[in-house]
């Protein structure tokens, strides 16, 4: 049995500039980090040549084309695994609408597990690009490339999206103590609201020409934040998040709503320096930056469940290989 572990991510700025409609015209940039919350994919052989997929629902079919879970179906096609396999998927966060890049992480994790299952060694960059092909080209999702690359490569990185579709990533160099301080000033609260990122991004893409100036300003934040982090001035992250959130809310309807606005204003009044809704917006996790001495006040003021997290420096990896093949397989999480 093979088990892949693929990290989720939080992005600080640049979201929306990784969408093809923008970067093919203006180039894009994103700064994000992976966190220690994961998607797990287990793959094991079946003797009866059928395909069984276990997520929040269970599917058992004889042909790949019969699978309803589109990411699993397309990953099997991409890796040429046609029969006799069982796939089990588990996640540390709600499966959809978290804003933490779960679909990109799942696609990368599926590809990593399925290639490893076949004994094939595929680079992280190739896993990311194939995941983008599945989601953007084959499934026609109106999404960007940042989630797939973050899940595959991992760590605190600056991503540059070129006009020709190529992606260059740069690991942001920062002392471990400074990185820990930066991490400790960040909080994630679960809004309890699920939403379709694709629907929001579809509306955003339709208004790209009218809203491009906001995206250009969001893109410019990436170079500024990179310099600030590298020079140890991560305290400006709060104001950068706040400014970026004001611009992001202008991109499309549904990115925010009165309830989200109320929570955010409550957080600011309690002492938060800035924040944003993670991912495309509309729900999922509210990320806040605040000095540690006011965290307890934020927890008291916000009627939301907090999720503890830390930074993760690695991308997708195999945490269980084929040891013990032929014996009864068990999942350990």
Automatic annotation (TrEMBL):
It comes from the Bacteria. InterPro entries: GHMP_Kinase-Related (IPR052203), GHMP_kinase_C_dom (IPR013750), GHMP_kinase_C_sf (IPR036554), GHMP_kinase_N_dom (IPR006204), HddA/FKP (IPR001174), Heptose_7-P_kinase (IPR014606), Ribosomal_Su5_D2-typ_SF (IPR020568). Keywords: ATP-binding, Kinase, Nucleotide-binding, Transferase. Residues 73-155 form the GHMP kinase N-terminal domain. Pfam families: GHMP_kinases_C, GHMP_kinases_N. Gene3D superfamilies: 3.30.230.120. Residues 227-290 form the GHMP kinase C-terminal domain. Belongs to the GHMP kinase family. This is GHMP kinase. It comes from Paenibacillus hexagrammi.
């Amino acid at each position: 049995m093979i088990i892949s572990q693929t990290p989720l991510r939080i992005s600080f700025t640049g979201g929306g500039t990784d969408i093809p409609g923008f970067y093919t015209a203006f180039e894009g940039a994103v700064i994000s980090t992976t966190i220690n919350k994961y998607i797990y994919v287990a793959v094991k052989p079946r003797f009866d040549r059928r395909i069984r997929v276990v997520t929040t629902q269970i599917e058992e079919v004889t042909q790949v084309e019969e699978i309803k879970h589109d990411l699993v179906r397309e990953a099997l096609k991409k890796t040429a695994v046609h029969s006799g396999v069982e796939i089990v998927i588990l996640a540390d966060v709600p499966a959809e609408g978290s804003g933490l890049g779960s679909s990109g992480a799942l696609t990368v994790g599926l590809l990593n597990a399925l290639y490893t299952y076949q004994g094939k060694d595929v680079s992280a960059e190739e896993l990311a690009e194939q995941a983008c092909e599945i989601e953007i080209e084959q499934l026609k999702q109106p999404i960007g490339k940042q989630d797939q690359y973050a899940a595959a490569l991992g760590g605190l990185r600056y991503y540059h999206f070129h006009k020709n579709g190529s992606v260059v990533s740069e690991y942001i160099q920062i002392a471990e103590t400074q990185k820990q301080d930066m991490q400790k000033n960040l909080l994630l609260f679960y809004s309890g609201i699920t939403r379709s990122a694709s629907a929001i991004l579809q509306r955003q893409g339709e208004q790209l020409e009218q809203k491009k100036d906001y995206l250009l300003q969001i893109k410019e934040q990436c170079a500024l934040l990179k310099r600030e982090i590298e020079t140890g001035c991560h305290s400006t992250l709060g104001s950068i998040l706040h400014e970026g959130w004001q611009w992001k809310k202008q991109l499309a309807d549904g990115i925010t709503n009165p309830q989200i606005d109320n929570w955010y204003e409550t957080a600011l009044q309690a002492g938060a320096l800035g924040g944003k809704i993670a991912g495309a917006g509309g729900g999922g996790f509210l990320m806040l930056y605040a000095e540690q001495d006011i965290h307890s006040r934020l927890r008291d003021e916000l009627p939301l469940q907090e999720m503890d997290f830390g930074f993760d420096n690695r991308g997708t990896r195999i945490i269980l290989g084929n040891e013990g093949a032929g014996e009864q397989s068990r999942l350990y999480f």
